[in-house]
Amino acid sequence: MNTRLQVEHPVSEMISGVDLVRQQISIAAGEPMALRQADIVLTGHAIECRVAAEHPESFAPSPGLVSEYHAPGGPGVRVDSALYTGYSVSPHYDSLVSKLVVHADNRDECIMRMRRALDEYVISGIETTIPLHRRLLSEADFLSGDYDIHWLETRLGL
């Protein structure tokens, strides 16, 4: 059993409707488990884009001052981030600056929702991987589900 939350846990939260962090804290505080496996119903589809302060092709770090910040919103859109206009992204830590997660009834709707969210997302002053995510969501292989963990290296040369 892995007792820690994974960075992708918002995907599980979106399709289950269960706040995993709250559940973990409650259990750690000695409270009984609030849910049984039978209580958890998975619905729809979710996609997470990990937005990093990196060049979208070379993946070189891009620390610096965030000159403008506007997070996307709307139904089924979740942004986990501490960024704001005026925030200074340090070169001394992990380059992850945001997790953008969307949920919809099915994969096609989810992809459309993520495209809209990425188009609405504004992070200026530093380079981010947002353009890479936009590109990936337009690739035929991604749309057809024909990809694996080596896809970026072999198909896009990244």
How would you describe this structure in keywords?
single chain, 158 residues, alpha+beta, D-amino Acid Aminotransferase, Chain A, domain 1, two-stranded antiparallel sheet, globular
| Average of per-residue pLDDT values | 93
| Strand adjacency order, main sheet | 1-6-4
Beta strands, count: 7
Number of helices: 6
The helicity comes to: 25-40%
Return the CATH architecture of the largest domain.
2-Layer Sandwich
Low-pLDDT runs of 5+ residues are none
Instruction: Characterize the overall form.
Output: globular
- Taking the alpha carbons of the first and last residues, their distance comes to 33 Å
Task: Kindly report the name of the CATH homologous superfamily of the largest domain.
Answer: ATP-grasp fold, B domain
Structural class: alpha+beta
**Topology order in helix (H) and strand (E) letters:** HHEEEEEEHEHHH
According to CATH, what is the class of the largest domain?
Alpha Beta
How would a textbook summarize the main sheet? 3 strands, antiparallel
| CATH topology name of the largest domain | D-amino Acid Aminotransferase, Chain A, domain 1
Tell me the fraction of residues in β-strands, as a range: 15-25%
Radius of gyration: 17 Å
Number of domains: 2
Walk me through the structure.
With 158 residues, the chain is an alpha+beta fold. The protein has two domains: 1-43, no CATH class; 48-155, D-amino Acid Aminotransferase, Chain A, domain 1. The protein has helices at 9-16, 20-28, 107-120, 130-136, 140-144, 151-155; strands at 45-52, 64-65, 68-70, 77-81, 88-89, 96-104, 122-124. The protein is 30% helix and 20% strand. The strands form three sheets. A three-stranded antiparallel sheet has the order 1-6-4. The model has no long low-confidence stretch (mean pLDDT 93). The chain is globular, with a radius of gyration of 17 Å. It is built from six helices and seven strands, in the order ααββββββαβααα.
